[in-house]
């Protein structure tokens, strides 16, 4: 936003110069926005609806919205990055269980750790929320908040996705990166509002999405302040303080943002209430649902899958005017190319590891 | 920040023009920062320390801090606005009890409402946290979040402080308004991190402090999403979800901001841990404590008062290098003048009401 604001200030200044307007071409050429802000979006109704909405709300007229109120909220898993075969955060947890196992010899014979160590996701799922909760607590609590973020960063640098062989933070959606940048270039403030752990997402949100830590809203473990000598720390306690999912999303938006979004994006029923909260009010608003329809380039899944449901939100979409993004049709490409990622500071993905993931055997089949 | 950023972009562009630099004087004259960004701060050690810190951290050199990390956090009560004879939010609660009394005839004979209706703060205090909690729940929950903010705005427009006769939002500290603006002009992002109710503070933080809702962090009632027909709402439930005080402040900073502050300001032991969290780390940082030493123009209170303690924080200040702001000595003026407030969209304060507050007889004496 800073660059966009500076560009705007520069342009206003230039237009104000009047007689000196001939010089405008010089700095504009350097700072000019590319002709097409959404090159990875196929021309068509979806793309047109997005561009029209942004133009209407940012140009003088009936639908104009002041800059301060241009809030855009994005779900993360399945909306900004992939989520198959399981939420990446859960794959992180399983890798952490393996990494911590030498300090816990008892895990070899103790559920749910035994199944986690075996990478037996089906057995874990049979253990239900209690088993999954135990895996999460063992890997997401019991350290400081800074240590946790550093651990996630290290994992992101080393881990590779079991089927694509990519770094997980290279499995972000190129069209959504463009949408985030396009909204920010039009002075929208972009937030993540997602069920993932806040600190987990902060480990990559800034360098991958351009979203700073203070605009990442997720689920939270309880943080407890501790001063040891002259060294303060925030300890992550094994208590889930807040689940940022379903009706929790508008609640978190109210608690932390304090304005209703003008734009929201999601991909499951966990986003249903956020989309309602965004669009069920007077004035302009827009909501999109990323629909995973692309078996060839990503995954195809619909109303019920390993990572949740997209059922009520799909039913409500037509009467609420929510745009369902058809990944296969609306997106020219899925992921950024490795060269572009490297230029952004991320490491290019290595070739897929022969024999699948080094850490996990996923027994679920791709639909 | 938007205007400052635009100004900076403009200046960079101008300096880049080289041969055309002669025109720079034209827009600079219009947008130039005043020579003195802190006119209400007395020349002296405190003021010098603040200016030096901002210059060192924003100029190239050993102490330079990137823009993204320039986080400044401010307590509200007693730091940005006055807090005597009692927290203004509690005076709001007492006014609301009176306003709601016709719908609750039983309150006439029922504590703590009876004492609240009589404005008998001493009797209320004897009821302890339970009594105060009941008053807070009766006035801060049981409506939607939007309704609550509107009620606070309406109260701010009508209520007058019992001894100054000013609007409460005109009892903000002019030197602190200048400090907020000075930090923002240097690309600091300013947050409120205060024990007050988040939504209560949002009712005035934007127009009075220039701090948008998403940068206001306070205590929170639990919010619950409800959809009635096609109308969604966030209900304020009578449950204190989070107390943003003491060790809760660094916890909230970790949960919501996700970066350690570079600068923090407080005025009581409720800010102790925030100041520690800000300054006990490598690299530059600064913390200030507003010390209410001004009996003539404001109030004079110290280690123990009706609104809390300033005890441990004052003890730690010397060895932590925290700057204790001596209100009587360091501030040329306390409040903005009414004309300036009116120009900012606020109403000028009427003359003090004869006979004291229309709604409250405060029995505590000023020290």
From TrEMBL, chains A, B:
<protein>
    <submittedName>
        <fullName>Haloacid dehalogenase-like hydrolase</fullName>
    </submittedName>
</protein>
<feature type="signal peptide">
    <location>
        <begin position="1"/>
        <end position="29"/>
    </location>
</feature>
<dbReference type="InterPro" id="IPR036412">
    <property type="entry name" value="HAD-like_sf"/>
</dbReference>
<keyword id="KW-0378">Hydrolase</keyword>
<keyword id="KW-0479">Metal-binding</keyword>
<feature type="region of interest" description="Disordered">
    <location>
        <begin position="340"/>
        <end position="367"/>
    </location>
</feature>
<dbReference type="InterPro" id="IPR006311">
    <property type="entry name" value="TAT_signal"/>
</dbReference>
<dbReference type="InterPro" id="IPR023214">
    <property type="entry name" value="HAD_sf"/>
</dbReference>
<dbReference type="GO" id="GO:0016787">
    <property type="term" value="F:hydrolase activity"/>
</dbReference>
<keyword id="KW-0460">Magnesium</keyword>
<dbReference type="GO" id="GO:0046872">
    <property type="term" value="F:metal ion binding"/>
</dbReference>
<keyword id="KW-0732">Signal</keyword>
<dbReference type="Pfam" id="PF12710">
    <property type="entry name" value="HAD"/>
</dbReference>
<dbReference type="InterPro" id="IPR050582">
    <property type="entry name" value="HAD-like_SerB"/>
</dbReference>
């Amino acid at each position: 936003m800073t660059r966009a604001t500076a560009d705007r200030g520069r342009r206003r200044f230039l237009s104000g110069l009047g007689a000196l307007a001939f010089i405008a071409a010089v700095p504009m050429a350097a700072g000019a926005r590319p002709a097409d802000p959404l090159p990875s979006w196929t021309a068509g109704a979806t793309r047109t609806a997005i561009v029209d909405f942004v133009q209407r709300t940012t140009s003088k007229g009936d639908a104009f919205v002041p800059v301060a109120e241009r809030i855009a909220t994005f779900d993360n898993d399945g909306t900004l990055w992939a989520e198959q075969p399981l939420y990446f955060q859960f794959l992180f947890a399983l890798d952490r269980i393996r990494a911590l196992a030498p300090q816990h010899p008892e895990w070899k014979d103790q559920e749910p750790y035994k199944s986690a160590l075996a990478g037996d996701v089906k057995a874990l799922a049979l253990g239900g929320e209690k088993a999954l909760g135990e895996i999460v607590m063992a890997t997401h609590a019991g350290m400081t908040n800074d240590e946790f973020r550093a651990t996630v960063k290290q994992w992101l640098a080393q881990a590779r996705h079991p089927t694509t062989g990519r770094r997980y933070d290279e499995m972000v959606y190129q069209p959504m990166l463009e949408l985030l940048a396009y909204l920010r270039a039009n002075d929208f403030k972009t937030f993540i509002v997602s069920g993932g752990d806040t600190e987990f997402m902060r480990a990559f949100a800034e360098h991958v999405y351009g979203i700073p830590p203070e605009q990442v809203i997720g689920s939270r473990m309880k943080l407890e302040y501790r001063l040891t000598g002259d060294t303060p720390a925030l300890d992550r306690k094994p208590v889930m303080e807040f689940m940022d999912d379903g009706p929790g999303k508008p609640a978190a938006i109210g608690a932390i943002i304090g304005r209703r979004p003008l734009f929201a994006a999601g991909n499951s029923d966990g986003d249903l209430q956020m989309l309602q909260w965004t669009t069920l009010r007077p004035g302009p608003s827009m909501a999109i649902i990323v629909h995973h329809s692309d078996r060839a380039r990503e995954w195809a899944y619909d109303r019920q899958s390993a990572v949740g449901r997209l059922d009520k939100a799909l039913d409500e979409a037509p009467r609420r005017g929510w745009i369902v993004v058809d990944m296969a049709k609306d997106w020219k490409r899925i992921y950024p190319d490795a060269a572009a990622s490297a230029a952004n500071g991320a490491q290019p993905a290595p070739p897929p590891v022969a024999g699948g993931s080094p850490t996990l055997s996923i027994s679920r089949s791709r639909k």
